Amino acid sequence: MTSARTADPVSVGSRAPEFALRDQNNQLVELEALRDDRRVVLVFFPLAFTGNCEGELGMIRDRLPEFDSQSHVTVAISVGPPPTHKVWSVAQAFLFPILSDFWPHGEIARQYGVFDEHRGYSLRGTFVVDRDGTVLYAHASEPGAPRDDSVWDEALRVAAS
Question: Is the four-CA dihedral 127, 128, 133, 135 of positive or negative sign?
């Protein structure tokens, strides 16, 4: 079975879809509030407790000063529920927000064009949102493919500029 995205990913220059999602501590996190202070790096990932996702989020953890700075903040988003994200974040020492796109299931991933309808979870999407809500960077990896290092480098370059 092949993967099918809900739609094409949001594009650079477009308005970022707003959201209000619960983090691993069950706190409500709103994109609008995040971007009041700085740019926002959105990192969509398929599922907690999986190899590639653990590696990618572990890299964010290990390089947190690059992903959470005066110019930008990073949040990760998955369809898993907050309690699952809590257990995983504690076990992996993830100190950044891991947001739950659990219900309605995958709705925010759909709005960003990175939801895999056949598998029921998001693809690896990386977006940078400016303080005014404009998408400055957009990338969606192919199903099953981890993000290339160049995606991280370009997203951080755009976020910091």
Answer: negative
| Prediction pTM value | 0.93
Residue 60: name the closest of 40, 74, 39 by CA.
74
Query: Which positions are annotated as active-site residues?
Result: 53
Sequence length of the chain is 161
Helix segments in 93-131, DSSP class H: 107-112
- Please give the domain boundaries of the chain with CATH numbers for all domains: 14-160 (3.40.30.10)
Q: Match 């960003």 to its residue by tokens.
A: 112
pLDDT at 1 over 90: no
Tens-digit pLDDT profile for residues 6-48: 668 899 999 999 999 999 999 999 999 999 999 999 999 999 9
Q: Specify whether the CB–CB gap between 72 and 79 falls below 8 A.
A: no
What is the token pair recorded at 21? Answer: 């999602």
Q: Which helix (H) or strand (E) holds 92?
A: helix 82-92
Question: Is the CA virtual torsion 32, 63, 87, 50 positive or negative?
Answer: positive
